[in-house]
Amino acid sequence: MASPSSGPSGNVMLAIVEKKTNPLDIYRPLRNYVVINYSEREAQNVEDDLQTLKQFRSDVERGGAGESLSVRRDLLQNYYKALCAVESRFPISPDKDHVSNVSFVWFDAFKSKQKATQQNIHLEKAAVLFNLGAVHSQMGLSFDRSAVEGRKQASHSFIAAAGAFAYLRDNVSMKASVGTSTTLDISVECVGMLERLMLAQAQECVYENTIAKGSSHGVCAKISRQAGLFYEEALAALTTASLSQHFEKAWIAHVQLKAALFYAEACYRYGLELHDKDEIAEEIARLKSGLNALSEAKKSSPRGASQQILDSVNKLEASMNSNMERAIKENDRVYLMRVPPASSLKPLPSFSMVKPLVMDEVLDASKDKMFASLVPDSSAKALSRYTEMLDNVIRTQAENLQQGSELARVRLKDMDLPDSILALEGNFSLPAALKEDVEAVQICGGPIGLEGELQQLKDLRRVNHEMLVEIEEQLQKESTEDLQFRNQFGTKWTRPQSSTLTKNLKDRLNKFAANLKQASESDARIERSVRENAALMSILDRHPIESALPTLARPMMSLDQNEDAVVGALKQSLRQLESLGAQRAGLEDMLKEMKRKDDILPKLMSSAGSYEDLFRKEISKYDQICGEIAKNLDAQEQLLLNIQAQNDEFSAIFNLEDYKASREKAYRQIEIAIAKFREIKQNVNEGLKFYVTLQ
User: Fold this and answer.
1) Around Cβ 382, how many Cβ atoms within 10 Å?
2) Which of 205, 320, 510, 626 would disulfide-bridge 155, Cβ 3.0–4.6 Å?
């Protein structure tokens, strides 16, 4: 134990000395391993990390000489996290394929001649955690416990020390204690005892502040009793066969007297509360029980206890004897109560104000980047496995979200929502595909525009006919001239006869004339079709086209005038459904963002436990959002049932089936009109193309 330190009551507390080690070259073996198993270039990449690790080890070997306790604490924490990075990348063992030329040597903190030598990193990690707890305990003793703030700081340090020893016990002790070369100070039993001792001293600091604040006797009794219980647990561990011969007698005497002192202190404070309540008989019994505990501890505890503790025991003993004499006199003269035997008393109430500091975050190496570029094959495979598990979760939830949205869409379509509500408000619209077809018709002029195109046909037909007549006249003129000159000059007119020269032209001309006649007949049919279907197609000239649709009107007569309430409830439910849909979109985005940020490779690299346990823990991060998705889908299902019932009532009131039938009839009329328009339009376009080509 370190130099004793006492508080205002004169009570001494204990600190733990650090374990010692031998110098070790950890740099060269690790660098060689990187060169052999990765490359020289990779070794150069991690050179800074290797140098940092080397410096950490060197600083730890010095044992804190010339360093402040806070600097020493930070060093040990950083070195431990570095060791976690080393453990996942550098297999240290006697195996020839591993880092086999590194042996860690550590001496027992309480029996300095005993040492452990192991070729694995577990001993190194255990020793560092032990020393971290020891440094925290020394920090606790370093504060001035004569002041409230000093006692608070001391309590926090002892809590941190308890956390370090608890972390050592739960995570490393068993691994470091395997084999024949080990020391008792890092065993589960020993560090468990040290954890209880540190908690006892932390609770003692709280008790000292409670007394200083002038808290009630009952509160003081509970806090004192818990301090005693912590000391009793430490004493029980100290007196086991495995530890009883490992510690100095002064340790056992110290802890035994402290356990008795705080039990008696609780009896004393509880007795004061009983006296205030005139429960004199139990007060006497409690005081006797506390005095017996002090007397027994003084007799049975080994020699070597601090004089300050003995003084505190004697002082408390005197106060308790004084109170008991007073209580006995009052009972004999006034209350005449029977004093219950100690065996009949209930256990004193206790209240713990401290618990070990959780060290998981403090010692979490996953956020450190040391040796980050070295990824062993096992870690890469583990990452792939986790990614596969995560992708399965994301895929399943994405499918659930998509199915939820599709289900809502289909169910609403089956109920003709929200179209029927929009129709009632005059905000209805054609189905998207049909509306696009109507807009296409209107963009190209619509049925009204056909009149202009028919006029174009007439004009082109006239032009072509005029050209045909002109050519016929030219040919006829040429034929007349040929006959005239032939009669005039006789045999001197040697040019071939006109009928021979122009035969091909006349044949083509006759063909063009026939085509033109046929085209004229087609034009007549088109004009007739336009006239016959003008009424049908006129619907396509309506702007907006929705004005051609039937309207959903309120009933002419109503018995209970609740139409507005029914419509309002249905619209409210639809808004809620829309809100659930927006929430699903947000949940999907959140899920994708969580996956994007989910990088567990550092945790895989620093994990010394089961990958499957780590996977379960990491995947559980998504439990909350998966639960929210399930909750959203359940809420939607219930809401859709409500909407179905509301829509049934709405349909009955507004005679929705008749409206839907007339609306579908209007849709069909528009579709037929579009088809007829397209047919005529195509015929017109073909006619225009024919005349242009013929011309």
Assistant:
1) 20
2) 205
- Is residue 646 a contact partner of residue 416, using CB atoms and an 8 Å limit? no
| DSSP reduced 3-state for 99 | strand
Is 273 inside any structural domain?
yes
494 within some domain:
no
Q: For the purposes of burial, counting CB atoms within 10 Å of the CB of 305, is it exposed (0-12), middle (13-18) or buried (19 or more)?
A: buried
What is the domain-level CATH number for residue 18? Answer: 1.25.40.280
Listed residues 183, 199, 214: the one ending a domain: 214
Torsion over CA: 289, 291, 297, 299 (sign): negative
Torsion of CA 202, 206, 209, 213, to 10 degrees: 180
Co-location of 231 and 201 in the same domain: no
pTM of the predicted structure, to 2 decimals: 0.63
Domain that holds residue 578: 379-428+552-654
CA distance 245 to 243: 6
DSSP3 helix / strand / coil % (the chain, rounded to 5): 75, 0, 25
Type of residue found at 19? K
Q: Do 140 and 230 fall within a single domain?
A: no
Helix intervals (H) in 533-562: 534-537
Residue with tokens 């209350």: 335
Q: What is the pLDDT of residues 450-476, one digit of tens each?
A: 888 888 888 888 888 888 888 888 888
Amino acid 300 reads S
Take residue 127 and report the two structure tokens written for it. Answer: 């020793």
Integer distance in angstroms from the first to the last C-alpha of the chain?
118
| Residues 223 and 177 placed together within one structural domain of the fold | no
- Please give the structure tokens belonging to residue 530: 């336009």
State the DSSP H helix or E strand holding residue 550, giving kind and residue range, or none if neither.
Answer: none
* CA 168 – CA 193 distance, rounded (Å): 12
| Tens digit of each residue's pLDDT (9 = 90 or more) over 545-600 | 777 777 776 665 555 567 788 888 988 999 999 999 999 999 999 998 988 888 87
Q: Which amino acid is at 474?
A: Q
pLDDT score of 609: 67
Residue type present at position 20: K
Total domains present in the chain:
3
- Domain end marker among 214, 231, 253: 214
| Residue 8, pLDDT score | 36
Separation in Å, CA 327 to CA 218, 278, 292, 334: 18, 10, 17, 10
Residues 174 and 242 reside in one and the same domain: no
How many angstroms separate the CA atoms of 139 and 145, rounded?
Answer: 12
The residue assigned the tokens 């496995």 is: 385
For residue 515, is it within any domain? Answer: no
Q: Which phi and psi (to 5°) does residue 104 adopt?
A: -90, 135
Do residue 223 and residue 188 come from a single domain?
Answer: no
Q: Are residues 140 and 23 in the same domain?
A: yes
Q: Is residue 536 situated within a structural domain?
A: no
Q: Are residues 89 and 208 in the same domain?
A: yes
Please state, in angstroms and rounded to a whole number, the distance separating the CA atoms of residues 634 and 449: 54
For residue 181, the model assigns a pLDDT of: 85
Looking up residue 634, the CATH number of its domain turns out to be 1.20.120.560
Which residue reads 């889908």 in tokens?
633
In a shared domain, residues 220 and 199: no
